[in-house]
Amino acid sequence: MNKFRKYWKLFSHIGAHPGMSYIDFKRVYMINLIALLCLFPTIFFAILNLIDQRYILSAINFSNSTCAFTVLVLQYYGKYNIAKATLLTSNSVFFFAGALLYRNGGEYFLLCTLIVAMLMYENRKIHIVLCITIAFLISLLYLLPDILPPSQQVPRSRSVFNIINALAFIVVAVNFFLDIIYKNMKKIEQQRLNLESMNRDKEKIFSIIAHDIKSPFANLEALVFMFRNQMLNSTTSQEYIQQIYQQIAQQNQALDDLLQWGSSNMQGMNCSTSKLLIKPIIQHIIKSFNDNAQSKQLKINLDIPPDTQIIANRDHMTIILRNLISNAIKFSYVNGNINIYVSVDELYTHIHIQDEGIGINPLKSAALFNEVQQKSFGTEHEPGSGVGLVLCKDLIERNKGIVNIQSTPNKGSIFSVGLPSSPAHITQTKVELPSCC
């Protein structure tokens, strides 16, 4: 059985190549199927009619099988148009001849030929010409008298058999192309959804650029203007130099995040995931924020077992955690604590980032992850990192994760990101907003 499938696939794909469009491949495939369906039955009936001493009908059947073989050869050499014309012409001639001489129900196969031709050609002029031709041939079959006596015609049972086969072929051919149409519609719909997603990502990127990157560069321009015009004395210049350094560092981080996000979009919506140890990633991020934390005398407490793992994209997780930790530092009060710890349930490993800061109004927390927020400054007037929580939500969703906010104004917030603990736990993404304490 496997050998039969192997050879059937080999013959049915004659002339097909990887560079073909989906429609062209299916047309080549269908021509091959029709040629194969004509080849073997016509050889069988050629032998059967030869035994029954219907020599002319046997010759017609044999000629039809020869033309079907010729079609396969033309397909193999890429002569697709000639193959189509040969298939349709030979079938029309031989089906008409058999029906005219032996009344074997060949007119129904002429209808099959017409339907196949309309499916194979897109030119409506060809449709009209073929329709007129087939209608004319069928009319002749009913108008012309019998050429051979009834004793030499095929049995009625064989005519019925041919009619049933012709009708079955019509159903199969129509459903074959309906399947192509529906699959194309699904592909078009998927492409439309992908384009909409790409447009949304583009709008997010432009919003972030306009909202979080343009404004700090304007501040930098103002500071450089003051330096150029010597509007700052030596005492205050050091403070402004530190501000410039922080803003440049923040914008460099923001641009890096945007470039990584844009790169992932260009490579498609799917992201490659793997098992990741959480603690080393967070330790590296904390180290990069040491200066910021020390300037506010913050204590960052990391309580994560060394073997804690998640299933996620490493670059995405770095962006997510860097932004959440940056926000925790930004909105924490001086001398406060930032606690980073994990909890595990049946589906997710949750990373919790808790700060002792200004908190979030419950009415505003629901919109944090859905739209770019107005420019905000931290407790010591620090500028934002630039990318924001909209990007975090997008990347969390791509990694099949969830996010939750618990916040109390003037007391602090807990941002919790849940990622799958194992490949079996990857489920439909959802975002939980909010759960206020």
Automatic annotation (TrEMBL):
Residues 208-423 form the Histidine kinase domain. GO terms for molecular function: kinase activity. The keyword Transmembrane applies. Keywords: Kinase, Membrane, Phosphoprotein, Transferase, Transmembrane, Transmembrane helix. The chain crosses the membrane at residues 28-48, 55-74, 94-119, 126-143, 163-182. PROSITE patterns: HIS_KIN. The keyword Transferase applies. Its EC number is 2.7.13.3. It catalyses: ATP + protein L-histidine = ADP + protein N-phospho-L-histidine. It is an enzyme of class 2 (transferase). It comes from Sphingobacterium zeae. It comes from the Bacteria. This is histidine kinase.
